[in-house]
């Protein structure tokens, strides 16, 4: 069994000071939302064994804030910045997942961007929580977390429609007292 977690970066400023999209940083709401999600994750294990983060500033900041909230409860995961996650489509994201076989974590977290993360979540889901599927159908919002389980022993066997959607959570759902 392998668990894949897809986390979209938190809310960002509209423009980066230097003008580069990769340099866009989290705004105040993004920092609050990332902390809220991290606090939720801290009391809802299991935690990721490996984390692959897009090198964009907003993704790095999102992971840093989430980790700050969960580190007291979780063993440190192997963290790597993966350039291929920036602007990745579902096929590129699947390649990143397959490459995780080299380290063979049981639970892998990817921190990246839409539209690829949302599209990948939909394409990887073959079954699972109907409430989560309905909540995820239209959008993977900023700070949204998708958790998929795969009945496999090797990350190279992850395939589209092969995952079981276990849950979908976002700051908005948490504030409403629910999760998908």
CATH superfamily: Phosphoglycerate mutase-like
Structural class label: alpha/beta
CATH top level label:
Alpha Beta
The helix count comes to 6
How much strand? Answer: 15-25%
- Average pLDDT, to the nearest integer? 93
Low-confidence stretches: none
How many domains comprise the coordinates? 1
Helix content: 25-40%
Describe this structure as you would to a colleague:
- The protein has six helices and seven strands; from the N terminus they run βαβαβαβαβαββα.
- The protein has 180 residues and is an alpha/beta fold.
- It has a single domain (2-175), classed as Phosphoglycerate mutase-like (Rossmann fold).
- Strands 3-2-4-1-6-7-5 form a seven-stranded mixed sheet.
- α2 links the parallel β2 (50-53) and β3 (78-81).
- α1 (28-42) packs parallel to α2 and α3 packs across α4 (116-124).
- The mean pLDDT is 93.
Summarize the structure.
The protein has helices at residues 28-42, 57-70, 90-99, 116-124, 130-136, 171-175; strands spanning 2-8, 50-53, 78-81, 107-112, 125-128, 145-150, 163-169. With 180 residues, the chain is an alpha/beta fold.
Q: Which helices and strands appear, and what pairs or packs with what?
A:
Blueprint: E1 2-8, H1 28-42, E2 50-53, H2 57-70, E3 78-81, H3 90-99, E4 107-112, H4 116-124, E5 125-128, H5 130-136, E6 145-150, E7 163-169, H6 171-175
Parallel strand pairs: 1-4, 2-3, 2-4, 5-7
Antiparallel strand pairs: 1-6, 6-7
């Amino acid at each position: 069994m392998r668990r894949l977690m897809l986390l979209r970066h938190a809310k960002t400023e509209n423009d980066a000071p230097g003008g580069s999209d990769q340099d866009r940083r989290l705004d105040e709401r993004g920092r609050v939302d990332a902390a809220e999600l991290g606090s939720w994750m801290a009391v809802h294990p299991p935690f990721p064994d490996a984390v692959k983060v897009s090198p964009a500033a907003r993704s790095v900041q999102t992971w840093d804030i989430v980790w700050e909230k969960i580190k007291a409860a979780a063993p440190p995961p192997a963290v790597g910045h993966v350039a291929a996650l920036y602007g990745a489509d579902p096929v590129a994201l699947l390649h990143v997942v397959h490459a995780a076989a080299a380290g063979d974590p049981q639970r892998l977290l990817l921190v990246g961007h839409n539209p690829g993360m949302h599209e990948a979540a939909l394409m990887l889901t073959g079954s699972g929580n109907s409430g989560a599927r309905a909540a995820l159908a239209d959008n993977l919002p900023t700070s949204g977390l998708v958790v998929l389980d795969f009945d496999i022993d090797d990350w190279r066997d992850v395939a589209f429609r092969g995952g079981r959607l276990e849950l979908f959570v976002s700051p908005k759902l948490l504030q409403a007292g629910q999760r998908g």
